[in-house]
Amino acid sequence: MVPLIILTILLLLFPVAMIVRAIVVTKVMGGLLAIASIIAHITIPFTLWRLDLPWLAFSYLVMSSLAWAILPFVGSAGDRNARRRIRNEDIERYERKIRRDPTHAAAHSALADAYFEIERYDEAIEAFDRAIVLDPDHSRLDRWKRSQAIELRTQRERQRSKTSQDSTETPPRRV
Q1: Please, are residues 159 and 165 in contact by the beta-carbon 8 Å criterion?
Q2: CA-CA distance, 62 to 97, in Å (whole number)?
Q3: Rounded Cα gap, residues 113 and 146, in angstroms
Q4: Alpha-carbon span 61 to 137, nearest angstrom
Q5: What is the pLDDT of residue 14?
Q6: Going from the N-terminus, what domains does the chain have, and what CATH number goes with each?
Q7: Long-range contacts of 97-105 (CB under 8 A, 24+ apart)
Q8: Using one digit for the tens of pLDDT, what is the confidence trace for 80-112?
Q9: CA distance 129 to 142
C-alpha cells in the first residue's frame, strides 16, 4: 500500500513541477493559467477519490503525468519558432524605441534580453554594453547576463571549431 501512495504522490507532483517549469524556464505559460492548471490537476484526482473512484483518480494521474512528460517533445519545435517570431517582433519594437530615444537604458537592456533568448549573442553583448554605459548604477544584472552571453558565444565558437576540424580531418589511408 505504501508504494502505491508514494507513486500516487509522485504522479501528482510531476505535472505540478512541469507547470512550474513552463512558467519559470520556458516561459510558455502565464501565471493565471498555471495556477488554474495546478488547481485542476489537484482537484480532479481528489474529487474522483472522494467519489470512491480511486482507480479512475490513479488513471487520471498516470495519463496527465504522461501527457506532461511528452509535451516538451511534441511542442518544442513549434514553441521555438513561435518564441523566435515573438522575439523578432520585440526586437523591432525595442529598436524603434531606441531610435526615438537612444539614451533609454531599459530599452537597450530589453533588446539585449531578446537577442539573448534567440541566441544572437554578439548583438546581445553590444546591447548589454550600451545599457551598462547608459545606466551604470542599475546594471548589475545586465553585467551578469552579458557575461553569460560571452560564455555561451565562446562555447558555440568552440563547438563550431571542433565541428569544422572534425570535418576537415582526412581518414587514415589503408595500405
Answers
A1: no
A2: 48
A3: 9
A4: 49
A5: 79
A6: 1-74 (no CATH), 101-166 (1.25.40.10)
A7: 103/134, 104/134, 105/130, 105/131, 105/134, 105/135, 105/138, 105/139
A8: 777 788 888 999 999 999 999 999 999 999 999
A9: 8
pLDDT in tens, 52-68: 998 888 888 888 888 87
If you search the block for the grid coordinates 551598462, which residue do you land on? 132
Please say whether the dihedral angle defined by the alpha carbons of residues 61, 64, 66 and 72, taken in this order, is positive or negative: negative
Distance, in Å, from the CA atom of 121 to the CA atom of 125, rounded to the nearest integer, reads 6
Set of cell numbers at residue 25: 524556464
CA distance 113 to 93: 13
SS3 readout for the chain:
CHHHHHHHHHHHHHHHHHHHHHHHCCCCCCHHHHHHHHHHHHHHHHHHHHCCCHHHHHHHHHHHHHHHHHHHHHHHHHHHHHHHHHHHHHHHHHHHHHHHCCCCHHHHHHHHHHHHHCCCHHHHHHHHHHHHHHCHHHCHHHHHHHHHHHHHHHHHHHHHHHHHHHHHCCCCCCC
Task: Please tell me the distance from the alpha carbon of residue 163 to that of residue 166, in angstroms, as a whole number.
Answer: 5
Here the cell at position 161 is 571549431
